[in-house]
């Protein structure tokens, strides 16, 4: 059977092709949508290009100015944060709500700390608070510079295969992510993303009021265990913490309507869906 998620993402990509921009000698990709409303900067994780946020982008593009980025094939967290500040300047965004997921959530936290004048709000999603122990865990424990790319991709495949066995209802998501692993994210970009956390800096202090910080997590996230989720909230002290009862590491893909409703809340937009009264929790 055709994969509905892949087909829908490909439809979106045809309508909103990724643009390229050179910043700091690094070749970034980005998708831009919307020309009015609050500015929203979306930063993906390791297994996603900017268009992995296609469902929230389509839902919000008539009410917000959205930029979703794709990491370049060089640099790391510190360089990327400087580049993203320059990108905001070039696109005319003086203030942005920055949402990052996973690797992107770490970058978003660093961005908000380094450029508090640009960060209207920080939304740290399905992410971590420190890179202190990252290098001891697969796939980061591999020689990311020299290990055969097939070996690295196979490692992702094993992890995704285990998730498929536990959650066969998310087979379409796994197929979409495998397409990213198997070449939609080119080898240099994939290695660079992994090294960005393995060699990444610890997060600097964050000078942002708590009422401008939110976190997102999922109770069944296979990559961000409960102690790490707790540590993210303890560090950021968010005014709002959203928790999906289920959604894994990619709730914005598998539960887009609920994800859009929390973005509407954070952007100050009217909430169009059912909101957070479905057994999920939102703490303040």
Automatic annotation (TrEMBL):
InterPro entries xref list: AB_hydrolase_1, AB_hydrolase_fold, Maspardin
Keyword hit for Lipid biosynthesis: no
Give all residue intervals belonging to the AB hydrolase-1 domain: 40-260
Q: Entry's SUPFAM superfamilies? A: alpha/beta-Hydrolases
Extract the PANTHER family matched here.
ACID CLUSTER PROTEIN 33, MASPARDIN
Its protein name is Maspardin
- Spell out the molecular function terms from Gene Ontology: hydrolase activity
Protein's cellular compartments: Cytoplasm
Pfam family of the protein (one): Abhydrolase_6
Q: Please provide the record's keywords in A-Z order.
A: Cytoplasm, Hydrolase
